[in-house]
Amino acid sequence: MEKMWAGRFAGTLDKEADDFNSSISFDSKMYREDIRGSMAHAAMLSAQNIISVEDADKIIAGLEEILSDLDSGKLMFNLDCEDIHMFVEAELTARIGDAGKKLHTARSRNDQVALDVRLYLRRRTNELIELTKKLISVICDKAEENKDAIMPGYTHLQRAQPITFGHHLLAYASMFVRDIGRMEDALKRMNLSPLGSCALAGTTYNTDREMVAKALDFDGIVINSLDGVSDRDFCLELMSAYSVTMMHLSRFSEEGILWSSWEFKFIELDDAYTTGSSIRPQKKNPDMAELVRGKTGRVYGNLMALLTTLKGLPLAYNKDMQEDKEAVFDSIETLEKCLSVFAPMIATMRVNRENMYKAAQGGFINATDLADYLVRKGLPFRSAYKIVGQIVAECIAKKTVLDELPLEAYKAHSELFDNDLYTDISLETCVEKRISAGGTCAASIDSQLCHIRKFLKN
Hints:
By secondary structure, the chain is mainly alpha-helical. The chain contains 19 helices and four strands. Helix 6 (109-145) packs antiparallel against helix 7 and helix 6 packs parallel to helix 12 (323-348).
């Protein structure tokens, strides 16, 4: 197939070099966006009297037909074409004749691909946002079911204070709410049309870039033509947002992997999201969670690859920028798969409340509440802290816990202790006393759920 840039060249491109140069194997994902952008461009050319109404009508009808045929599978991509832009234009010209050759008036592949990428990322990121919302909804449902399931909260992977499983889950819901905010913020900055920047300097034709931007649901146009064709900040911003979302999924996966181990047994993942061992019949491996954790590095790598590609590029367009698409497309598809498997995995997991409660009974995680008990009796916190530390040491030596140490032993440390201390340091009381906003008590969890569900509804 003759290249559309062939006029300057007497020879032909080496076959291996041609394959190396080609991008249609991956940029064909953007065929809908490329055709939609071309329709808007043709309508503008006609409105500005740059091409005739008759030619514009032929172009738009031809493009609609090509889109329909690609969607149905009737038309297949020709991999001999260098990219999706050349494929669509060649197919259009083959169908409608010379009118198809007029479509490329007042634009370049440089601004055309910049437009296609923005349109594609806008659509796909909105799909990721919807998947993230579904995950948040699942987390909220599971949190509400377990807002009274007491478990140990950890710092440094050491048991620290009693919380509820619902409270723990809502921490992840909050993270994913922020992830949606990051993606939406990036989309706002990205939502400007570069079409009309042409190769780098604009065009001599009297185009109406605002008309095209409006037709394609952009908020306006990129105001500098050099920036219009060379900007890939929006790819980096979105890939950064995807990476943070993957990081949150990975942290959640890590805890799920720990919680489902025999050492914890806080949860059991459904058989649909686990696998067995080829040699050990007792195994139930959390492979889906492990894969999510592993794929996080892949999304990080894509971000670093594109940052490195762009760091030394002079203005304006350079062929290096073709490397943006495989990286960002892979990040989108990886996050999409992870979100799609993660939500049902959380929805179907079973919670072992008894094991969580037993774990919360160990580790002296009500020690802070014991110190607070003394503070309410009038003792300075630092003095109370020291006394409780001594009592914990005594419990360790006697192989007992705070709840079971006799009152006489308590009084040996301070006469402020009385029988009411046992109610004060029960796990249920410890949880319900955390009444501050954002805390682990039931009322706070209800408030958090209300806030997050309101976000989802809006």
